[in-house]
Amino acid sequence: MTFKALFLDLDGTSLNDHNSLSPALQAILTKLREDGLQVIFSTGRSFAGALPFANAIGGIDYMINYNGARVFDFRKDRVLYEALLPRPVLEQVFEFSKIHQYPPIFYHNNVIYTADGSAHHHTCPGERFAILDPDYNWLDEDITKALFVVPSEQLTTYLDFAHQHFQGASISTSSATYLEVMPQGVNKSVGVQHVLEQLNIDPKHCIAFGDQRNDLEMLSLVGHPYVMGNAIDPLKVQFPDRVVQTNLEDGVAKTLDRLFKLNYF
Predict the structure, then answer these.
(1) 235-249 pLDDT, tens digit each
(2) Is the domain of 76 the same as that of 196?
(3) Cβ-based neighbours of 185, under 8 Å, separated by 6 or more
(4) Do you know which CDD domains this protein is assigned to (predicted)?
(5) Is the pTM of this model over 0.85?
(6) pLDDT tens digits, residue range 143-162?
(7) Is 144 within 8 Å of 108 (Cβ atoms)?
(8) CA–CA gap between residue 43 and residue 38 (Å, rounded)
């Protein structure tokens, strides 16, 4: 079987609880990339938030950020694709925030705007948290993604609320507490398709790993999807024969080791 490209989610999939690639996975990805496999990180993170992992395996040709809303082409040092939240959706973001009393978090490029400017996750070099000024006219700003941090036990409830509230936007979740608002029609598969068009690769020759709702479309697109053992139940139900070990058990590394017969383990 011929594999030509590998699309990897980061958090909960490729990364362990120390926010890093395991030594085994780093070594395997480096070898596969050197052997000609296209390795592409596909994540909800910012460009700067994902870049250290691309550098750790010797560099990559493409990277998908913000759940497919931004694709960077390292070959030509350019943004290949970018989608922004339209003004009506930004208005809905503030309305949703007012109704449910959760402050919005905005993402654009490598800046993340929060109510108090404090980080809500591990900060990588080049990634900056800034204050979301309530008096500023954010409706005219370029914003790639909006996010609400909600209690994990109420995530499904707020996901339903968001689907009912937002018009002209794509809604998903990327963790047990992250409710995400992206431009309409945007998801990781959109980013994957932009990359595959550049590489002239058919999805049937691609592998992907993921663990959350924002991975669903990407996993559904490729010929060889794999779901982490720690993934949400809906993904396991949809891909029952494709569940591998958890991220803490090095599920990605062990699966790649088997697929490519590397005999690392």
Answers:
(1) 999 999 999 999 999
(2) yes
(3) 170
(4) HAD_Pase
(5) yes
(6) 999 999 999 999 999 999 99
(7) yes
(8) 16
Q: Is 214 helix (H, G, I), strand (E, B) or coil?
A: helix
CB neighbours of 216 closer than 8 A, spacing ≥ 6?
187, 210, 234, 235, 238
Residue 265 domain-assigned (yes or no):
no
* 60 three-class SS: coil
Alpha-carbon distance 36 to 242, whole Å? 24
Max Cα distance, the chain (Å) = 58
Q: What's the domain range around 63?
A: 5-82+186-260
Question: What is the number of domains present in the chain?
Answer: 2
Pairing of strands 62-65, 70-73: antiparallel
Distance of CA 161 to the CA centre of its chain: 22
Q: What is the pLDDT of residues 49-73, one digit of tens each?
A: 999 999 999 999 999 999 999 999 9
CA distances from 239 to 110, 220, 233, 235 (A): 33, 9, 10, 6
* Residues 68, 186 contacting (CB under 8 angstroms): yes
